[in-house]
Amino acid sequence: MALETTDTLAWIVVGLFAASALLATRDDYHTAARRVAGVSWVLFALFWALLVPHFWFEQKSVIETVLIAAAVPGSLYVAYLVSATRPSLMILSRAVAVMGLIYLPVLTVDSVQRALIAMTARHGAWLQRALGYHPQVLTGPTVESSHTGFPHAFLYVVDGHRYLLEVLLACTGIGSISLVAGVIIALRAPIRRRLLALGIAVPVIYGLNVVRVSFIAIAHGNQWFEGALSRRFVELVFSPTQTGITSYYMADRVIAQSLSVVALVALTFVLLRLLPELGTVVRDLLYLATGKEYDVTQRD
């Protein structure tokens, strides 16, 4: 029920962000656009607040929970700033609209979800085999999914024990791709440079995501992190209800998610060289985080 509520709220929020972006195209509606954007950010804060229990109790992801919880006051702060003192945040508001218009339709079209999951599973299987590992690639129902007719899970059988990794929509990288693509498209930059940036960012994000999924499957399937210290850490932080799951939590929730943040920051630096206009968004984000102004202009 909570996720159904957030899905509906997400469409409302994206619709309001899109409305504010359209209003901003008219010189005589800039003030109204910023007010609509402010309301959008308040509802966005509510959206994130509703997701906190899901990521803490069900996903058991510390990093994602912390980021989502931080997004609640962050969104409220943006609501105030964009309405009152910082019109440059309209770029970020426009970016959220574009992100939503890319990501939300994927959630509603089952055939697109299946295609993305199948593509990620096939590429992940290829990479694992290239590295000398040979998981079974499942196309039928599993204990975690009713999917059938396309590849969607990896199964390792080690010493009679079965270790399954289900490839979900969140594993396809569509979230990160939507995020970066939304920001790039929202910038006021020449279309040629934006297309070039998309041509670099999208395949890099997808490729890194295939590496991430493959790493998690191999680590979980071969129980790389089943030492006593890792088990104790996972029990303390994640309180898992299954046995033999320590390597999965260490590979996914700790290592892969931490490196994903590092990769996103590194990609941002690369894109800044190509799109100096991105500096406005980065500067606004740094101001939100620290309360200080920074010069992020790229210098040779």
SSE blueprint:
Elements: H1 2-23, H2 30-58, H3 62-84, H4 90-108, H5 110-130, E1 136-138, E2 153-158, E3 161-166, H6 174-186, H7 191-221, H8 228-237, H9 246-274, H10 278-290
Antiparallel strand pairs: 1-2, 2-3
Helix pairs in contact: 1-2, 1-4, 2-3, 4-6, 5-7, 6-7, 7-9, 8-9
Model regions low in confidence, pLDDT < 50 over at least 5 residues: none
What is the number of helical segments per DSSP (H or I, 4+ residues)?
10
On the 0 to 100 scale, the average pLDDT is: 90
Helix- and strand-based class?
A: mainly alpha
Distance between the termini: 52 Å
Strand order of the largest sheet: 1-2-3
Radius of gyration: 21 Å
Main β sheet profile: 3 strands, antiparallel
Shape: elongated
What's the structural domain tally? 2
Helix content: over 70%
Beta fraction: 5-15%
- Taken in chain order, the helices and strands follow as HHHHHEEEHHHHH
Q: How many beta-strand elements?
A: 3
Protein name: Archaeosortase A
GO biological process, one term: proteolysis
Membrane topology: Multi-pass membrane protein
Keywords: Cell membrane, Hydrolase, Membrane, Protease, Transmembrane, Transmembrane helix
